[in-house]
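Practice problem 4.
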């Protein structure tokens, strides 16, 4: 038992080799270098010294996170062959629904203003379509971009979060070394290209302009995807029902949208579906239409339905309409996911999110965005009334997203994959050149509908950037105005007021320091709770944080203050739909575990100190014995005991745990603190919230005052408040007003 305890303690001070530089490990980190790990094997006496001297605080966030860092693998599930084929079948409707409906309108839009004069025109259009499908979706996305996923998640914000894990490019400075120890926070091992990758990393981290450009690029791509969510239903459904114009005289089109579940697929299943089904079917479909156009050139306007035999018109019409609806559903669901990811990373105002499935956390519904998309789809259809102008707008949005993904994947290749420089540059040169040719082509259609996605993207880009800009300024203001620890020590454990039973959960955004709003509560309230927990809800750049790794605790001040800091970490795909009772219970259980672990670590540290002092005294006495050699004193005194006890499970000899270490049941200080916590919990929880008002300083520029005092203030006043997100009864909430001057 004793030997196993010391082995566990030694494992806590060892860490997996990770690619980090010196700036990523703060002064409170308990990680040891590879050189120190070698010294642990060679010098057993140094083990005790490191266990005592290295951790500056035994309740460090990093120690608690390292103990469970490898206990959970979020994506360790291996699908069978039949399971993969089943997923591949499901991707046909969800992932490839939009691409599968493209034969409805491609040739009709290509020849809408350019008449067919010879077979060469048809063959040229067919070649362009075939080479585009083979180069962009097939070569680029299916076999390259899909590998740049963030633990199975895709999209522009997934790529951004992946880059944020390897370089500190997030404008919100709340990163911690403990975040890297989350089981889903996977970093690649160094390669021979490491030096180049470190230079790129240093360039991104040192220059704020590079961080801003990268963020703007991601926001632009996300804005284009939201624009796709408006244009795809209008384009797909109008193209599907356009066949009725030839069958029913005077038929006028109408846009419809439906929503379906958006499943989770693997890279292999998507590759199988595209390679074996989607790609050959698209080629056959386009070649068939081209052959029909070469024989009947005047059928370009309704080529899809004209090429269908008369007896199969209505079945094909029904299938095409259903396929268009599925394509619209997939794009709208993707819009919801992008907005949720941007909200989690602090780039979109908070909105109500409804989780529509208990099995899959990715299936969400955002009511206000749904209404917005519906209204905009109706306006687009009523304004343009034809698929030609909508196609011009649709093309700009699609090409814009492709260019953004090309740039971000290139950064991933250089920074994370550490690909050979020549191969990494071939990716943007080959695919980027083709995409810029398409971009130059669609930009000529700005007056003919191409202005619409640019207007949508500009609007959403401004909203997202202003929200992120205001949030960063607010966080920086909180950091500047935080309460000093000396002030709390001067107040004493009573905090200058009366401590009454109960647990006060003070929500703030700081990961270090005491928020200034706590001072407002001390001044405004006649008493304060016996236990105070500063709760920080923080989103880390990973899709999912396992439940057992959710909370990190640290003690604030000494034990008699009964104050703690709790950081609740969430990934951008995590679901925060637990009620406040479940959250309170989980928080208290985690706090109790933290207190027990803290007591054990302190007991171990004190015992090792006593052992070290005894060793020093023993050596001093032996040095006085005549004939003793100085060199003999370098041999560890516990060597014989270790030999008798046997080797550890890892094959390394470690010192035995002294019997003086007390268990948690025998520690009166721990029992008193746990009983005080139970008494406070029985008295109830109170949520202490700050109702903040963000204002620009008087000496700020006019544009900054306009953005912060009016636009950002309007967004904050109309977004979903924190109390609504937590689903806490109003009787359990106390708020004080605070103004942040930025």
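Answer key:
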């Amino acid at each position: 038992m004793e030997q196993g305890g010391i082995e566990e303690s030694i494992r806590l001070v060892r860490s997996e080799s990770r690619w980090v530089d010196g700036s990523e490990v703060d002064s409170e980190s308990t990680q040891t270098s590879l050189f120190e790990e070698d010294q642990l094997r060679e010098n057993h006496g140094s083990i005790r010294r490191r266990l005592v001297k290295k951790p500056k605080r035994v309740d460090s966030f990093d120690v608690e996170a390292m103990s469970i860092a490898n206990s959970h693998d979020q994506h360790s599930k291996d699908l069978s062959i039949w399971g993969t084929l089943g997923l591949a079948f499901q991707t046909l409707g969800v992932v490839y629904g939009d691409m599968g409906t493209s034969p409805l309108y491609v040739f009709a839009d290509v020849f809408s203003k350019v008449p067919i004069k010879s077979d060469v025109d048809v063959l040229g259009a067919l070649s362009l379509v075939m080479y585009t499908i083979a180069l962009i979706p097939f070569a680029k996305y299916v076999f390259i971009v899909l590998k740049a996923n963030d633990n199975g998640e895709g999209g522009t914000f997934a790529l951004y979060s992946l880059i944020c894990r390897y370089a500190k490019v997030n404008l919100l400075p709340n990163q911690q070394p403990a975040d890297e120890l989350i089981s889903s926070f996977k970093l690649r091992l160094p390669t021979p290209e490491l030096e180049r990758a470190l230079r790129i990393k240093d360039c991104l981290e040192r220059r704020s302009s590079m961080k801003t450009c990268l963020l703007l690029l991601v926001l632009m791509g996300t804005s284009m995807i939201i624009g796709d969510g408006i244009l795809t239903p209008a384009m797909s459904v109008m193209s599907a029902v356009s066949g009725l114009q030839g069958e029913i005289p005077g038929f006028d089109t109408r846009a419809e949208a439906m929503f379906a579940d958006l499943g989770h697929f693997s890279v292999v299943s998507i590759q199988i579906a595209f390679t074996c089904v989607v790609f050959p079917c698209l080629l056959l479909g386009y070649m068939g239409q081209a052959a029909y156009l070469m024989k009947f050139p005047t059928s370009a306007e309704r080529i899809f339905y004209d090429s269908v035999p008369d007896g199969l018109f209505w079945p094909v019409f029904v299938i095409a309409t259903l396929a268009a609806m599925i394509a619209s559903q997939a794009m709208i669901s993707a819009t919801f996911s992008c907005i949720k990811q941007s909200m989690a990373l602090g780039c979109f105002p908070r909105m109500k999110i409804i989780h529509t499935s208990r099995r899959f956390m990715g299936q969400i519904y955002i009511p206000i965005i749904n209404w917005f998309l519906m209204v905009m789809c109706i306006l687009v259809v009523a304004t343009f009334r034809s698929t030609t102008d909508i196609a011009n707008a649709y093309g700009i949005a699609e090409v814009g997203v492709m260019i953004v993904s090309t740039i971000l994947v290139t950064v991933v290749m250089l920074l994370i994959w550490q690909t050979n420089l020549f191969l990494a540059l071939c990716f943007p040169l080959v695919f980027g050149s083709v995409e810029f040719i398409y971009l130059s082509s669609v930009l000529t259609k700005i007056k003919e509908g191409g202005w619409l996605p640019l207007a949508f993207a500009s609007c959403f880009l401004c909203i997202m950037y202003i929200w992120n800009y205001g949030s960063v300024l607010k966080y920086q203001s909180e950091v500047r105005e935080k309460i000093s620890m000396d002030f709390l020590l001067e107040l004493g454990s009573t905090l200058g007021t009366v401590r009454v039973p109960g647990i006060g959960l003070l929500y703030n955004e700081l990961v270090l320091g005491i928020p200034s709003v706590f001072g407002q509560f001390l001044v405004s309230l006649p008493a304060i709770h016996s236990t105070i927990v500063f709760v920080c809800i923080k989103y880390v750049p990973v899709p999912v944080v396992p439940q057992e790794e959710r909370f990190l605790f640290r003690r604030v001040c000494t034990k008699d203050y009964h104050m703690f800091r709790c950081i609740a970490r969430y990934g951008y795909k995590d679901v925060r739909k637990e009620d406040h009772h479940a959250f309170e219970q989980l928080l208290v259980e985690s706090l109790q575990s933290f207190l027990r672990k803290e007591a054990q670590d302190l007991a171990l540290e004190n015992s090792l100190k006593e052992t070290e002092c005894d060793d020093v005294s023993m050596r001093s006495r032996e040095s006085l014995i005549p004939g003793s050699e100085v060199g003999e004193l370098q041999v560890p005194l516990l060597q014989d005991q270790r030999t008798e006890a046997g080797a550890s499970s890892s094959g390394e000899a470690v010192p035995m745990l002294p019997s003086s270490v007390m268990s948690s049941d025998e520690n009166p200080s721990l029992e008193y603190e746990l009983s005080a916590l139970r008494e406070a919990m029985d008295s109830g929880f109170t949520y202490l919230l700050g109702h903040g008002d963000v204002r620009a300083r008087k000496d700020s520029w006019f544009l900054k005052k306009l953005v912060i005092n009016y636009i950002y203030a309007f967004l904050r006043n109309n977004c979903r408040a924190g109390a609504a997100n937590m689903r806490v009864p109003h009787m359990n909430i106390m708020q004080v007003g605070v103004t942040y001057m930025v």
